[in-house]
Amino acid sequence: MNREVQQISRARQTSKRPTLKTVAEAAGLAVTTVSRALSDDPKIALDTRRRVAEIAERIGYVPDRAAQRLRTGKTRVISLILDPHDELLVFGNSLIGGLTRAIRGTSYHLTITPAFEDDPKAPIDHIVKNNLADGVVISRTSPFDQRVRFLIENDFHFVSHGRTEFSHSHSFVDFDNEEFAYLAATRLAEKGCRKICMIKPPDRFTFSQHMQYGLMRAVRKMGLDYVIPEEVSLISPMDEINAWASGLATRDDAPDGFVCPGEASYLAVMSAFRSAGKLRGDAYEVVVKSSSQILSQIDPTIDRIFEDIEEAGYLMGRQLLQLLAGADRPGQTIQRPVADFYHS
Question: Coiled-coil segments, which residues (predicted)?
Fold first, then answer.
């Protein structure tokens, strides 16, 4: 270990750009072994790969990616296609954190590619046609998602956050939104609510169907009345949800229970009802899907169901690395909801 420290110290003091040989001398390994370790070769022990990556980082070794790309055809880049998720607080940060954790100690780097609703396929088309990444991560899938179809047809590695209905099996990590809606509506019924309102995602998303299945299962079992608003959806801006809820709060037939699949939608509803003089626990009850600890800090008595976005990012990252290493089967994971219900 002392020899390794000395070699690292000597390499950092020199003005020359560190090379593979520099890393190999510090690690006490052959240059070919170091090269394979930095290329994340699964035949090299994981501990060795991580140690070599750590030494390379401490020395300041940066591979010549242009030469590497010409030699191997690989970019050593994973791209997260990220569209705005205002309804789930810290969604993007959590997903990035999980993916970063997954690729730590490997030769892969993460890039963020923004996506916009007017043409969701455009950034993927650009990445694939220009060979800008070895694999991509996408979110918010639809049953027959054009992005997934394109990636499958082009034999391009990807993992999706959400399922599709294609017959071709592909890697995904998804949250059990059917179980979430069922647990949330059942909890509200147990607290005495008889008319449940669920602010649903737009119908074009696969998890919208799953959420509705769960709500209807609870409605049938518990004998509940329900309403799904057409004026707003989960992705509506907070001010639009607030305006809709403000009108709802003054009605005699207003729902007495809300299923909010995101923190932002709950905050908009709560603000509107509070302005009308109606408070949670008196005029209505709520269960919120949460991806952070923000709501528990605001009010620890809120009934929440937790979706671990960071863990989803980590799982997708590991699945994608396995595909890039030659795995012949797609990874498929459905995360279970974790209820955090308040009991006085």
Answer: none
- State residue 60's pLDDT score: 79
Q: What's the whole-number mean pLDDT along residues 279-297?
A: 92
| Residues 141-189: tens digit of each pLDDT | 999 999 999 999 999 999 999 999 998 999 999 999 999 999 999 999 9
Instruction: State how far Cα 33 lies from the chain centre.
Output: 34
Could you report the per-residue pLDDT of 310-326, keeping only the tens digit for each? Answer: 999 999 999 999 999 99
Supply the pLDDT for residue 120: 86
Tally the C-alpha atoms within 13 A of residue 299's C-alpha that lie toward its C-beta: 16
Residues in the chain, overall count: 344
**Section 263-277 average pLDDT:** 95
Report the predicted TM-score, pTM, of the whole model to 2 decimal places: 0.80
How do residues 210-250 score in pLDDT, each as one tens digit?
A: 999 999 999 999 999 999 999 999 999 999 999 999 999 99
pLDDT of 27 reads 85
Give the CB-side neighbour count of residue 277, counting CA atoms within 13 A.
Answer: 2
Instruction: Measure the CA–CA gap between 270 and 19, rounded to whole angstroms.
Output: 58
